[in-house]
Design a protein that fits this description.
Helix content is about 30%, strand content about 35%. The chain contains 5 helices and 10 strands.
């Protein structure tokens, strides 16, 4: 099964109400923070074990910016999308959605949910990295989005930058194929 990572780089850290708004929007697309039958949220500990918590507590923890968190969003009672929340630079938050183990249809549903979220949050969006295979290291993705430096190793399949930010990453655009998506985002791919 194809392992795909979607990393959404967002300006400013979300407080609890902003993260609630994000999770509510994802839920409208079928990706819920609360497990559909257990009625709670799930964080993952450092070894990947589930830690059941009230969804409100997870919202609170993200809002407090206590540090990196790993949680599950749910497409159904037995199908989850892992989401890592981390912080880079003083005011950049990254949500990475791990779509491994999903069917093609489930991957499409989760990807569309994230894309709709980004459209809603366009004014706060820096970029979306799409990385099938998960070969791009976090620090390389960070350098690409935040500092306009191309990774020395594997690159994401494509990056969607806010179109009005393209001028801030000229080194990234050199030799790249840039496509204006017509929705405030431009896709960047490398040959």
């Amino acid at each position: 099964m194809l392992e795909t990572y979607l990393s959404w780089y967002r300006e400013m850290r979300m407080d609890e109400s902003e993260f609630r708004s994000v999770t509510d929007h994802l839920a409208q697309s079928g990706l819920t923070l609360e497990h559909p039958t257990l009625g709670c949220g799930m964080l993952l500990d450092v070894v990947g074990e589930q830690v059941k918590l009230p969804a409100g507590r997870i919202l609170e923890l993200v809002g407090l910016s206590v540090g990196p968190l790993c949680m599950q969003f749910w497409l159904s009672a037995d199908t989850d999308v892992v989401c890592d929340v981390r912080y880079v630079a003083p005011d950049t938050q990254v949500l990475t959605f791990v779509l491994g183990g999903l069917t093609e249809s489930e991957r499409e549903q989760a990807t569309e949910a994230v894309q709709r979220l980004i459209q809603r949050e366009l004014d706060r969006t820096l970029a979306l990295l799409v990385d099938p295979g998960g070969e791009t290291a976090d620090e390389d993705g960070d350098a690409l989005v935040l500092y306009g430096r191309l990774p020395r190793g594997p690159r994401p399949d494509r990056v969607q930058f806010r179109t009005d930010r393209l001028s801030t990453v000229p080194a990234v655009l050199a030799g790249a194929e840039v496509t204006d998506l017509g929705n405030g985002l431009s896709a960047v791919r490398w040959p």
